[in-house]
Amino acid sequence: MSTLKWDEAVVVVTGGGSGIGRSIAISTARRGARVVVSDIEEEYAAKVAEEIRDSGGTAIAVQTDVGDYQSVVALADRAYQEYGRVDVLCNNAGVTMRPFRAIWDASLADFEWMMRINYFGVIHGLLAFLPRMRAQQGHKHIVNTSSFATLDEVPGHGMYTASKAAVDGISDVLRAELADHGDDFGVTILYPGAVKTRIATSERLRAEADRSEVRQVKAYPYPWEPKPHNQPIEPDSVGEMVVHAIEHNLPYCLTHPAPVEGLKARVDNWTRGYVPASPSS
């Protein structure tokens, strides 16, 4: 596998207008990459692109709704028209809902919106970019943003967890398929723990009638626990973590220590879940 050359690379970041996406855009630009900053809120994407240019870097902003496949195709078209290649694709845009709610207190529209952005947003990115990226020479890399919610159960956050678990599954299989075909690709799953971003206010992007505050959704009394991944960090540090993961071709990038004891308990439960069938008499 070859090494990514940052000063020749083009990086596309969805959800790049703030938070983790902005941090990834800034960190890759610092290394000389040309960056396509994509966000559904165009003014935020434009500010980040301007920030990069003001620091001597190269960037453009593109308004994109990752839940709309044609919008993501238009993003890919623009990136290739502008720079002729894409070396790193960060499918980072995501949403959540407040308050937390029991699965039975969520509406079908809640589930559909969460999956459309968090999961199908990633699928749209893969389908729009992968064929062209695979045709390029040199090393390429995909970063798909998941969540610590898939590593440690969060009662009241089932919809979000399900959407991010789907990202985990597609990413691990994608990595294996690219390797099977001899493609020079890395695939990293980014697992943010508590990061100080605007994701908790995601419902500003929904139609007013669908917003939880308007519908007076019943809140789930989530028992907050002082676990390491529940300790908030600033988003500015995450971009450097992602750069490290790309440079070392890591399959996983965590913003906080892994919940090892909980993961071990899962493995134990999986192990105990297999009982060989008794031979027929």
Briefly characterize the structure.
With 281 residues, this protein is α/β, with parallel strands linked by helices. Helices cover 41% and strands 13% of the residues.
Account of the 3D structure:
- The structure is a single chain.
- The chain is an alpha/beta fold.
- The chain has nine helices and seven strands, in the order E-H-E-H-E-H-E-H-H-E-H-E-H-H-E-H.
- The chain has a single domain, classed as NAD(P)-binding Rossmann-like Domain (Rossmann fold).
- It has helices spanning 19-30, 42-54, 69-83, 108-118, 120-134, 158-180, 212-215, 238-247, 260-272; strands spanning 10-13, 34-39, 58-63, 88-91, 140-145, 185-191, 252-254.
- The model has no long low-confidence stretch (mean pLDDT 96).
